[in-house]
Amino acid sequence: MSETNLATRPTVPTGTDHDSTEPLHLAVIAGSVRDQRMSRAVAEWAAFRAATGAVEVDLIDCAEAGLPDDGALRPGGSEASTVAGRLDAADAFVIVTPEYNHSYPAGLKRLIDWHYREWMFKPATILSYGVQGGLLAAEHLRGVFAELHVVTTRRGVGLSRPWEQLGPAGFQPPAATGAAFDAALHELAWWATTLRTARRDRPYAR
Ligand SMILES: Cc1cc2nc3c(=O)[nH]c(=O)nc-3n(C[C@H](O)[C@H](O)[C@H](O)COP(=O)(O)O)c2cc1C
Fold first, then answer.
1. What pTM, to 2 d.p., does this model score?
2. Other beta carbons less than 10 A from residue 91's beta carbon
3. Do 138 and 128 contact (CB within 8 A), yes or no?
4. Where is this region: Disordered (predicted)?
């Protein structure tokens, strides 16, 4: 991690404080697969920002997910992907997504569709980006996740032209962006703790 990133890291508990002794397991998902993709740098920033003693972070990169061929895709669960166990272990997700043609990328949709129970009854915060914040990608994701019983947090972050904040040390946004992300993480931590307890004590039955 760069010194700059260390300097901008919050020194007080922010979004990730919660009332459980068990660390929260947060999966940060880099949602694009292009060779020169921005999502990896943004996801690395988000993962560093979210990681505290109370939060264990796993960065899952769509470009490295190694999903099976779509010919084998089935509704409600297919053969296990190489990242199924890591998604299953997560209590919460941060989805880092660009906007492609007013939606989110096909690679991210494949990651979503290749899993089912790994997503269910968990919360997600959307960190979108594009020319104007990638908000159409974020709103499309909300509808898709609703189908999977994923609660998307009210707060998210929409980054406008984040490539202009990409330097040798990675993605380096202004302090206000970090504060907005911390606020979203705070909400995400509440949902993560609440839904983890609910999944354990009151498993959903149709
Ligand atoms: C296929 C494609 C479609 C795009 N469509 C949009 C768009 O609809 N709105 C937008 O703001 N940016 C759009 N962009 C620009 C992306 O926001 C920008 O290239 C961004 O860096 C892509 O994320 P990535 O680098 O992680 O792949 C598009 C980029 C690509 C490659």
1. 0.91
2. 24
3. yes
4. 1-21
Q: Which atom of ligand 1 is nearest to the CA of 37?
A: 25
Condensed to tens digits (0 to 9), the pLDDT of residues 147-174 reads: 999 999 999 999 999 999 999 999 999 9
Pairing status of strand 55-61 against strand 92-98 = unpaired
Pairing of strands 166-167, 170-171: antiparallel
Other C-beta atoms closer than 10 Å to the C-beta of 172 total: 17
Q: What is the CATH number that goes with domain 22-66+75-201? A: 3.40.50.360
Contacts of 127 (CB under 8 A, 6+ apart): 42, 46, 94, 95, 96, 97, 156, 157, 159, 181, 184
Nearest-CA residue for atom 16 of ligand 1:
130
Q: Are 158 and 133 in contact (CB under 8 A)?
A: yes
Q: Is 99 in the pocket of ligand 1 (CB under 6 A)?
A: yes
Integer Cα distance of 163 and 97 in angstroms = 13
**By alpha-carbon position, which residue is closest to atom 28 of ligand 1?**
100
Alpha-helical segments (H) within the chain: 3-8, 39-50, 84-89, 106-113, 135-147, 175-201
